[in-house]
Amino acid sequence: MHEVYVKTIALISHDGKKLEMISWINYSNNKEKLSQFRLVGTATTAKLINSSCGLNVDVLEPVEFASGPRGGDLILSVEILKGNIDAVIFFIDPMDVHPHQSDIHALERATVNKNVPLALNKATADMIITSPL
Predict the structure, then answer these.
(1) Residue 72 confidence (pLDDT) above 80
(2) Residue 64: pLDDT over 60
(3) Contact present, 80 and 108 (Cβ < 8 Å)
(4) Residue-level pLDDT at 43
(5) What is the rounded distance in angstroms from the CA atom of residue 76 to the CA atom of residue 79?
(6) Helices 122-130 and 18-26 meet at what angle, rounded to 10?
(7) Looking at the whole model, is its pTM more than 0.85?
């Protein structure tokens, strides 16, 4: 008997894009599509999605470091490099300065190194959750 592999998608967003992510998840049947994956996220985004959308998004461990500026982006980078993440949906706020920009760059480099799809906006996020690949 073959074990079914459920792909893991990381959901994260900058503070200025959290409401956009919630809106995207609740749009059309995106929530239904996302429910077919294992979902993980940085602490603030995961908790917001869990309470606002009713999806089960696991918070990265260790939880005390799991928000982006407190190391969550680096924790996610490690999970990508370990092969535990299949895609990343990261709604970035390009108009805001982020003190943890080097952590964000590390996350981007990890996705490139491991050939993990990285969506930075709704259009590419739609492509990830509808792709047969």
Answers:
(1) no
(2) no
(3) no
(4) 83
(5) 5
(6) 40
(7) yes
Q: In what order do the strands lie in the sheet with 87-91?
A: 57-59, 38-41, 8-13, 87-91, 118-119
Active site residues: 73
Return the DSSP state at 68: G
Give the closest residue to 55 by CA, choosing from 73, 71, 86, 32.
32
Q: Are 37 and 89 in contact, with CB atoms under 8 Å apart? A: no
Which pLDDT score is estimated for 65?
Answer: 52
Please check whether residue 85 is in contact with residue 55, taking contact to mean a CB–CB distance below 8 angstroms.
no
Consecutive H or E run containing 81 = helix 72-81
Q: H/E element holding 119?
A: strand 118-119
Per-residue tokens: 27: 């749009």
Assign 3-state DSSP to the chain and report helix, strand, coil percentages, each to 5: 50, 15, 35
Predicted pLDDT at 30 = 95
Confidence (pLDDT) at 133:
75
Q: How far apart are CA 101 and CA 98, in angstroms?
A: 5
Q: What is the spatial distance between Cα 55 and Cα 32, in angstroms, rounded to a whole number?
A: 9
Distance, in Å, from the CA atom of 15 to the CA atom of 131, rounded to the nearest integer, reads 27
